[in-house]
Amino acid sequence: MGEWVGRGRKARRAYGFDEIALVPGRKTVDPNDTDISWEIGGRRYPVPIIAAAMDGVVDVRFAIEMGRLGGLAILNLEGVQTRYENPDEVLEEIAQATPEKATELVQKLYLPPVKEELIYKRIKAIKDAGVPAVVSAIPQKAEHYARVALEAGVDIFVVQATVVTIFHESSSYKALDFHEFCKKMPVPVMVGNCVTHEVTLDLMAAGAAAVMIGIGPGAACTTRGVLGLGVPQVTAVVDAAWARDFHYKQTGRYIPVIADGGMTVGGDVCKAFAAGADAVIVGSAFARAVEAPGRGYHWGMATPHANLPRGTRIHVGTTGTLEEILLGPARLDDGSQNLVGALRTCMGSVGAKTIREFQMTEMVIAPAIKSEGKIFQKAQHIGMGK
Question: Can you identify the CATH homologous superfamily of domain 20-385?
Answer without folding.
Answer: Aldolase class I (3.20.20.70)
